Amino acid sequence: MNESNVKCEIIKDVLPLFIDGVVSLETKSMVENHLLNCEKCKQEYEEMSKEVVIPPNTDNSMLKQFKENSRKKKIKFALAASLITAMVFMSVYWFVFNFERVIPYSNSLFSIETDNNNQIYLQYSGNNYYGTHEAYSIPIDINGASKNVSFIYFTQTLAESPSSKLLGKSKETETIYKFSESDQIDAIYYVDFDTDLTNLVDDRETIVERADLLWER
Asked: What is the largest CA-CA distance in the chain?
């Protein structure tokens, strides 16, 4: 079904409300413009606008049927409008609260600490975040030497960003992230990644080139 047919069907559904004068100014303007360019819908409008004349002493079933059809079309239009509104709201809600964006690296946000047992910790000091993503201890050739490297990055959604007021005033938080397999890690880089680093050797070295070094042994 092409776009013009879809629009004609929408116009036909709205016509009863348009004739009764209960549509918004925007919808009224849309229908009027369409009727100027669509002869088929214009004929439909003229037919629906004709006054229903009931012959004397005849059954009024025709009038009842007309009113019933008009009522059903109004209900159909209201349900369709409600469904579209709900779908738009759900899409916006998902985007605002679930679509992750990488928090850019800054040495004022991220720092590395170690304890006496050589356990490595990453401290994050910044606005609320959504999640963390880490690739564990991956062997990579760096400057001719093989090193076990870990990649990590933090994410936030639009709702948690500093400019958003959806969750109230943005608050700074301090988070301590503990690295597993600390004794096997030679270097840690902050960078976003979306590939299977365990299989694609070339991608590992490419990622290192654009990553920020957080710590190395």
From this structure: 103
Give SS3 for 86: helix
Q: What is the pLDDT of residues 104-159, one digit of tens each?
A: 999 999 999 999 988 999 999 988 888 899 988 888 888 888 999 999 999 988 87
CA distance 102 to 161: 11
Question: 164, exposed or middle or buried, with CB in 10 Å at 0-12, 13-18, 19+?
Answer: middle
Residue environment code for 91-125, b if the CB has 16+ CB neighbours within 10 A, otherwise e: eeeeebeeebeebebeeebbebeeeeeeebebebe
d(CA 114, CA 97): 34
192 φ, ψ (degrees, to nearest 5): -85, 145
Residue 52 and residue 109 in contact, taking contact as beta carbons nearer than 8 Å: no
**pTM higher than 0.70:** no
> Strand runs (DSSP E) across 92-198, as ranges?
101-102, 110-114, 120-127, 131-142, 145-156, 172-178, 187-190
